Amino acid sequence: MAKVGVIGAGSWGTALAILLNDNKNDVVLWSHREAEAEKIKATRKTSKLPEIELSEQIRITSDLEEAIKDREALVLVVPSSCVRETAVRMAPFVAPGTVIVSAAKGIEERTLMTMTDIVEDCIPNAEAAVLSGPSHAEEVAKGLPTLCVVGAHREETARFLQTLFMSPCFRVYISSDMLGIELGGALKNVIALAAGIADGMGYGDNAKAALITRGMVEIGRLGLKMGGKLETFSGLTGIGDLIVTCASMHSRNRRAGILLGKGYSMEAAMAEVNMVVEGVYSAKAAIKLSEKYGVELPIIEQVNKVLFEGKDPGTAVTELMLRDNRMENSLIPWEKVDTKI
């Protein structure tokens, strides 16, 4: 049994707290709002997962020091836009060598840092790791079968976390490719917005399949240029996470995209979803990364124009369809043909 603090009481943080408690760990769940923490304490319910009742064994607090002190591992599960602020607040209470697992998916727009980069920047005495994969909180909280990947700098740390999270309903693989894991988890949210836009416009399954496939090409193209591994992008945190986020109504990114496809503005779509739509934050960062590394991202570029320039989604789709003719994969050569008669 390990002592674990879960920093963030949203749907994903709550689901992971439930999983860790079911695995017989000593779990503290932290909410940044005192009123929310007190309500969860009293009712053992949260509006984020209304069908789920939290075990009395999960301690609930709004005191950050209490959630961190004497914990062997911390799971950081706040929105990506809040990771730096939260990490700065955590730093004074984190003991040297504490493992901090980022379960947030995003890229910081200002610095283009991943979430573990931010943890290492703000809490240099901790050991950063990442947990990611196709894992809707609603299903994990119910104990439905789910597979994820843990990434860490050291294999020993990865195996410790693998054991911490592994259960009969939550299978965990390990990887040394932290960058690839985080890029896949962040960029798939932008592609999910595009898939949702296509759904909202009634474009059908062919269009969605095309967006998933070519979206994966864009993620891999940028990820490989930045140093991620091809195997990661073809695995759970690449194509796996992309499929589930583009296909499921649990996905807030897809839901926001559907509303955009129906004519909502970005602000109105986010207000309607009433949850953090991570793809909106990652979209701008992705474009900055494409410029930095000289990588073409046509789908992500059009999503940015729809989000931030008010571009008509139909026009964006037409421009994607009418791009210059090209090969699907330039690495596959033509067979040599003898044309002599």
Keywords:
341 residues; eight-stranded mixed sheet; alpha/beta; 12% strand
Overview in brief:
This protein has helices at 11-22, 34-43, 64-68, 83-90, 115-122, 137-141, 155-165, 178-200, 204-226, 230-233, 236-247, 252-261, 266-273, 278-293, 298-308, 313-321, and strands spanning 3-7, 26-30, 59-61, 73-76, 99-102, 127-132, 146-152, 170-175. The chain has 341 residues and is α/β, with parallel strands linked by helices. The chain is globular and about 75 Å long.
Topology diagram in text:
Blueprint: E1 3-7, H1 11-22, E2 26-30, H2 34-43, E3 59-61, H3 64-68, E4 73-76, H4 83-90, E5 99-102, H5 115-122, E6 127-132, H6 137-141, E7 146-152, H7 155-165, E8 170-175, H8 178-200, H9 204-226, H10 230-233, H11 236-247, H12 252-261, H13 266-273, H14 278-293, H15 298-308, H16 313-321
Parallel strand pairs: 1-2, 1-4, 2-3, 4-5, 5-6, 7-8
Antiparallel strand pairs: 6-7
What do you see in this structure?
α2 links the parallel β2 and β3. The chain is α/β, with parallel strands linked by helices and 341 residues long. It has an eight-stranded mixed β-sheet, with helices on both faces. It is globular, with a radius of gyration of 21 Å. The chain has helices spanning 11-22, 34-43, 64-68, 83-90, 115-122, 137-141, 155-165, 178-200, 204-226, 230-233, 236-247, 252-261, 266-273, 278-293, 298-308, 313-321; strands at residues 3-7, 26-30, 59-61, 73-76, 99-102, 127-132, 146-152, 170-175.
